[in-house]
């Protein structure tokens, strides 16, 4: 027979619902980045684009968008929008290498492309790990009536928050290293790099998970207004 305090949502229901909402969004954001371009094409880590002006409109690739599963090359003739016109895409593939045909069309230095690709495989693994850990923590937050299980939920949430923070730091490093390498090559390259939406989704996931840590800490230590015998 299942003990009453081991049943889901047996107590601290408001706190559980808050944690469920925070962790569900965190898991969703981490999963979206983990399945980014070229699986979910509107979501990408980094954009490298031509800064040349006065060039005729053509089908030659002037922009590369990097995700953790692939890359898309687009031209000034067909600029990508949020939902369409992503150009020629390569992938999905784990630990992908960009075909030489795309590199030659875009004119981007192979050295810069290698800098980006070296970190993307780690990003892929950790984003999906963070999403899975968020779901596990979400499930454990249903059982806050048990003090033991609430401690377990807190430990899982802290581990998830740390992983999410590391993932965002890697996303940050990928973009900053690429931008730094491009700037050091000077004006002869005529390319620049900017943030994709993926790193900001990763940052949101980390913030939401840390908020869940605070909420679960309140239950574990009976602080921030949470009482030992709350049954709501």
UniProtKB/TrEMBL annotation:
Q: Which UniProt keywords apply?
A: Membrane, Transmembrane, Transmembrane helix
GO cellular component assignments: cell division site; growing cell tip; plasma membrane
What's its membrane topology? Multi-pass membrane protein
Keyword match Transmembrane helix: yes
What are the subcellular locations of this protein? Membrane
Pfam families per the UniProt record, alphabetical: SUR7 (PF06687)
Asked if the Swiss-Prot or TrEMBL record annotates the protein with the keyword Lyase, the reply is no
Q: Which residues cross the membrane?
A: 12-40, 120-144, 151-178, 198-222
Under the heading PANTHER family, the entry gives: PROTEIN DCV1-RELATED (PTHR28013)
| Name of this protein | Pali-domain-containing protein
Annotated source species: Mycena indigotica
